[in-house]
Write a structure and sequence with these properties.
Order of helices and strands: HHHHHHHHEHEEEHHEHEEEEEHHEHHHHH
Strand content: 5-15%
Distance between the termini: 51 Å
Oligomer: single chain
Number of strands: 11
Helix content: 40-55%
Largest sheet: 6 strands, mixed
């Protein structure tokens, strides 16, 4: 017989211990000791960003813990995050809030996040401290790294793009942090990039790039760049935010590798990446740094019209000439074009009467063969393809792609909340911190019963 509960279950007093309500297997309990140690070492570095006068500031450790909760569980909105921390017992416990403690208002939380934390490098420092914790736990091997980038949509409407000369940056609504970062970055443009200015930029987030990478819809976006250790744990050892342009993403690999060696003392023997990183310039730098590139070479020299490709011409390194299929020579003046290319040209007296001209250069008086100034590095990378070590590296590259998949599916990191390159950098570091903390908790935590059993 089904009855109805009629008695009042409310009590005047409750005996409640928040510590006892959080299971030992809960993710936040497992990562709490790690984060407590990290924040204890960094707390003093935030002191200069808080005033000694005025109303009491929000505790920076509370804000950092709330942000990590948000990025661990995909809670991206400040208002919703404050509501969830107020209601969820585990979130309260992790943020060191008792049942009667007030959660910061979402507006105060946003102001502090967008203000004081932007002027510090605290998120990078926390990320590096977590990587050190992974190294101390034996999760980082350092033998091989993998690098890749994934497009994250910017907080900018794809329907409101303008040509650069159509935007008046002196208007009051354009006096934003993102616009200031964009205008300041124009003076720091890499002259070696050799690229045209963007045709479309976003007025609200001009640092983002107009992109349609990965067969997605055209949108403004940033590149989430990861450098991971390809050991079993696949710990993220480097992270960088760039506009979603291939050149910027490839260029970000160099500072990530240099920072990893300087901060952590890690220098890989091999680097794994996809074809976008197989340019002669990058391969040349990588080999010069003593790192073996397990990277497909970016090569577009093969012709599809039935005429001779560059591979049909044999290069004589000692004489610095190319030999055509009939044995004639192609020579170069030594002038470097576009910053990286040499041109080897045949003589019109050789090409004119040649019987193979229709298969070689039917639409020009003589054949011209381009050669990258870093062609030796490209040949070195080609020679590695097909080896057992190379094939193993290609399989291990999937680990970095899985990190991107988890960031988007498990952490809700498909669209940025902050604008400007500094905002993108902060968010990229936060999601990398959350992923490394979860990895660390997974590999080092054992249930209490299992610990006792191993000890006996």
């Amino acid at each position: 017989m089904m009855g109805r509960q009629t008695s009042d279950q409310s009590q005047l007093f409750y005996l409640f211990n928040l510590e006892q309500r959080i299971p030992a297997s809960h993710l936040l309990r497992r990562i709490n000791p790690i984060l407590t140690q990290v924040l204890a070492e960094l707390r003093e570095k935030l002191v200069p960003f808080y005033s000694e006068i005025g109303r009491p500031s929000v505790d920076p450790e509370l804000m950092l813990r709330m942000l990590i909760v948000g990025y661990c569980y995909g809670i991206r909105f400040e208002r919703r995050l404050c509501e969830e921390v107020a209601l969820h017992l585990a979130y309260r416990w992790f943020c060191r809030l008792d049942l009667d403690d007030e959660v910061p208002d979402h507006s105060t939380f946003s102001v502090n996040r967008h203000g004081r934390f932007r002027h510090s490098d605290i998120f990078r420092q926390i990320f590096e401290a977590v990587v050190f914790a992974c190294m101390n736990a034996g999760l980082v091997k350092g033998e091989g790294f993998a690098v890749d980038a994934s497009v994250i949509e910017a907080n900018a409407s794809r329907c409101h793009g303008n040509a650069p000369d159509e935007i008046d940056w002196s208007l009051p609504e354009r006096q934003t942090r993102a616009a200031a970062e964009f205008l300041a970055g124009l003076d720091d443009e890499d002259p070696d990039a050799n690229r045209n200015p963007p045709k479309v930029i976003s007025p609200v987030d001009p640092c983002s790039a107009w992109t349609a990478k990965a067969n997605k819809r055209v949108q403004f976006g940033y590149g989430l760049n990861y450098l991971i250790d390809i050991g079993p744990a696949a710990v993220i050892v480097g992270v960088e935010a760039t506009p979603a342009r291939t050149y910027d993403e490839v260029a970000a690999t160099k500072p990530m590798l240099e920072r990893t060696e300087k901060i952590f003392g890690l220098k890989p023997k091999r680097l794994v990446a996809d074809t976008a990183y197989g340019t002669g310039k990058f391969l040349g730098w990588l080999i010069g740094a003593g790192v073996t590139p397990h990277i497909p070479v970016w090569d577009k020299s093969t012709r599809e019209d039935g005429t001779f490709s560059r591979s049909d011409f044999k290069f004589d390194k000692d004489r610095n000439v190319y030999n055509c299929p009939t044995g004639k020579l192609l020579k170069t003046t030594g002038r470097i074009l576009s910053g990286y290319m040499l041109r080897y040209t045949a003589s019109t007296r050789d090409c004119g009467p040649c019987p193979l001209k229709s298969k070689c250069c039917p639409n020009s008086p003589q054949r011209i063969v381009p050669r990258d100034v870093n062609e030796d590095a490209r040949d070195h990378a080609r020679a590695l393809m097909g080896t057992p070590e190379y094939e193993r590296s290609r399989d291990e590259r999937k680990k970095v792609e899985m990190k991107f998949a988890h960031a988007k599916s498990h952490h809700g990191f498909e669209r940025l909340r902050l604008r400007g390159i500094s905002g993108a950098r902060d968010e990229c570091h936060l999601v990398a911190i959350a992923q490394n903390l979860k990895t660390l908790a997974k590999y080092i935590w054992r249930p209490p019963d299992a610990t006792v059993a191993c000890a006996t």
